[in-house]
Structures are given as C-alpha cells and as structure tokens.
C-alpha cells in the first residue's frame, strides 16, 4: 500500500527579495553624493587678456620693484640674482622706504610653475599687498598659437 504525500512545502514563494534592490539603491546614493559637490565647482572669472598700458608704464619706472623668474628657474630681483630664501627680506628692504608697496612679477613662458609660485610666496611673505603679473601685449594679427 502506497502513501499519498502532498508536497505543500514546494509551493511558489511570492515574497520579494529586497536585499539586491537596497544594495543597488545604496550604491547609487553614494555615487550621487560624491558627484553632486563636483558639479557646483564652476566659478565664472573674467581673466585679463594682457597687461594694461598703465601697469607697463609703472613697471618701467626706475624705482619699481620687479621680480623675474627665468626659464631655468633662476630668480632675479631687479638685475641681481637672489635665492628663494632671500627674496622676502630683500623685497621688504627695498619697499620700506617707498610709499607704493607694489611689486611686479615677470616670468618666462617656459618657466617651471612651481618656481613662479615660490617667487610669489616669497614676495607675499615680505608683506606685499599688490603683486602685478606682467605679460607682453599680443598683436591682433599675430596667430594665437605661436611657435617657440
């Protein structure tokens, strides 16, 4: 005699497994939390095209303080070569008897950006509140990408 057996435990399970859905939603939440601050980092700034004629006249005066950074990383104060450690003290010594505390910085196009920033930091350490960056005026007929 055989026993009839009903397999009631093998019915279709209609419960929704929400764990994978929650995992996907958490990953998306983290991605959006990381990306959202990056979307608002755009600041509109009007950059100057070239140094104004007035600034060039001020820089060409005999008593103006000009710091220059050459292509090979050497730093000059006027016509004298200085080290990055001495630039702050020498600039402050030159400016202590002047009423205008303005310093001009001239850097070669191919100068190392780090050396230029070190010169700016040295000038700022001297207490200079106005630092002018000198450029050369470009002719309108000259092509934008000039071979160097």
Automatic annotation (TrEMBL):
Q: What biological-process terms (Gene Ontology) are attached?
A: protein transport
Q: What keywords does the record list, in alphabetical order? A: Cell membrane, Membrane, Protein transport, Transmembrane, Transmembrane helix, Transport
The organism's superkingdom is given as Bacteria
GO molecular function terms attached to this record: transmembrane transporter activity
Q: Does the keyword Transport apply?
A: yes
**TM ranges:** 21-39
**Entry membrane topology:** Single-pass membrane protein; Single-pass type II membrane protein
| Record Gene3D superfamilies | 3.30.420.270
Q: What is its main location?
A: membrane
Q: Where in the cell? A: Cell membrane
| GO cellular component terms, semicolon-separated | plasma membrane
A Pfam family annotated for this UniProt entry: ExbD
Q: Which family does the UniProt entry place this protein in? A: Belongs to the ExbD/TolR family.
Name it.
Biopolymer transport protein ExbD/TolR
Question: What is the source species?
Answer: Granulicella sibirica
């Amino acid at each position: 005699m055989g026993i009839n057996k009903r397999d009631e435990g093998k019915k279709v399970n209609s419960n929704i497994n929400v764990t994978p859905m929650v995992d996907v939603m958490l990953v998306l939440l983290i991605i959006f939390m990381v990306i959202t601050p990056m979307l608002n980092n755009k600041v509109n700034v009007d950059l100057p095209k070239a140094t104004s004629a007035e600034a060039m006249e001020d820089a060409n005066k005999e008593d103006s303080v000009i710091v220059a950074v050459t292509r090979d990383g050497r730093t000059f104060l006027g016509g004298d070569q200085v080290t990055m450690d001495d630039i702050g003290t020498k600039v402050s010594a030159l400016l202590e008897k002047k009423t205008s505390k303005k310093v001009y910085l001239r850097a070669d196009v191919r100068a190392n950006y780090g050396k230029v920033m070190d010169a700016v930091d040295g000038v700022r350490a001297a207490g200079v509140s106005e630092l002018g960056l000198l450029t050369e005026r470009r002719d309108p007929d000259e092509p934008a990408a000039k071979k160097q």
